[in-house]
Amino acid sequence: MNKILETSRLYLREMTPQDAEVAYILNLDPDVIRYTGDDAFESVGEAKAFLENYSSYKTYGFGRWAVILKETDEYLGWCGLKYTLELDEFDIGYRLMKKFWGKGYATEAAKACLEVGFNQFNMESIVGRAMPENGASIRVLEKIGLSYLENRIENGIEEVIYIKHKL
């Protein structure tokens, strides 16, 4: 297992096709994907195919990483960095199983990912995106030090964009 980073309660590692079942379950919850613009995977097989073809680690050296609770080795969801070529920007993203909401895990994982982005990958700025009605996600972005930048429409969906620049 390739640990990318560790926090006091979590470790993050690359996602693999072996994560297909938990990735499928994560995206199956309508509350989890309500504010993402994503559709649920149709099957565990579709989730596995997605993970088999996920190329960000090879292309950029980073990506969305599995978030694992150290104490139990449980899969909580994912958190990590993504480069969007069309916008020439790096973003921080996170998605956790509902039973792990409200415990500070998203904030803990996202803060660690920002540090890796700035210090290991020399990113000059990192944005975070959320739908305006997703107050919980916006609070995470604010807690990790991002500031409001602008509202945008991406793929027909309104988003609020937050940003943090490397110090």
TrEMBL record:
SUPFAM superfamilies per the UniProt record, alphabetical: Acyl-CoA N-acyltransferases (Nat)
N-acetyltransferase domain residues: 10-167
Domain of life: Bacteria
Keywords in alphabetical order: Transferase
Entry-linked InterPro entries: Acyl_CoA_acyltransferase (IPR016181), GNAT_dom (IPR000182), N-acetyltransferase (IPR051531)
Transmembrane segments: none
Protein name: GCN5-related N-acetyltransferase
Annotated GO MF terms: acyltransferase activity, transferring groups other than amino-acyl groups
Lineage, broadest ranks: Bacteria, Pseudomonadati, Bacteroidota, Flavobacteriia, Flavobacteriales
UniProt xrefs under Gene3D superfamilies: 3.40.630.30
